[in-house]
Design a protein that fits this description.
The complex is a heterodimer of chains A (161) and B (97). Chain A is mainly α and 161 residues long. Chain A has helices at residues 9-18, 24-33, 36-57, 61-64, 74-100, 104-132, 137-158. The longest helix of chain A is centred in the C-terminal third of the chain and has 29 residues, at 104-132. By secondary structure, chain B is mostly helical. Chain B has one domain. Chain B has helices at residues 2-28, 34-54, 65-94. Chain B is elongated. Classes of the chains: A mainly alpha (161), B mainly alpha (97).
Amino acid sequence: MTERKLLTDAELEALHQAFAYHPIDEVWNRFKRHSLRFKASYIFLHVYVVSYWLIHSIGLTQTLLPSSLSITDPMVKQVMAGRLLVGLMILTIMNLAFYLKIGFKTVSLALLVSYTYATLSMSLVLGPLMYAADWGLKEFLWVGVRLAALIAMWQLYRSDT
Amino acid sequence: MATYVNQLSKVRLPLNLSLLLWLGGAVAMKKPISTILVITAIFNWILVIDDYFVVQIQNFTFESTLGQVLASLRPIVAASVSLIAIEARLHERGSGS
């Protein structure tokens, strides 16, 4: 038997918080008190994942992707839909974590790991194709937005929420 | 599909190996390991969701029995790594490191 406590006082307090009702005004005020970087990252990630999901669900993903990447394989479409759904699930849990003031760092880490994995996995296919392709505004924008999303996730993970 | 399978072996394997090496290095140098284990657990859960809900690995017929067994053990592995990560975190917090 170890002598460590199962829960620290801070965690016990957090558990009490988890079952307490937080008026939405208080949650909103808490959000407003965060740095501009945090707020921008939080909102950007929500807009990014939700709009990506909506565009994918109406079958217009091709308009977002670089011209050199043509997704004709149904499996690739399914994988993209699955990963976007995972992203939406993590975002939902993140909102819950922010509301309950518990586990926000772990959820942001989950989003970061998940997105890094998806990016690496996609880069493997896209890398050689894009290397050979002509780079236009769409390609730069696509890479830029993905990079911005990664930075936003990193910012949320580093925040003291 | 072939491209996707190719991706799996070229991304997952190096990532898992680097996590394992990172863990090995941390253990050898007596550094805290709970963060590495939490990242490994999260990564494993993402892979389980990818395999079971997206690729639907449960419907595949594997040529080798070992492949089938390994595939069916995936969620158990993820759950075990999660438990080890929680235990390591509690232990490291308890010992003040």
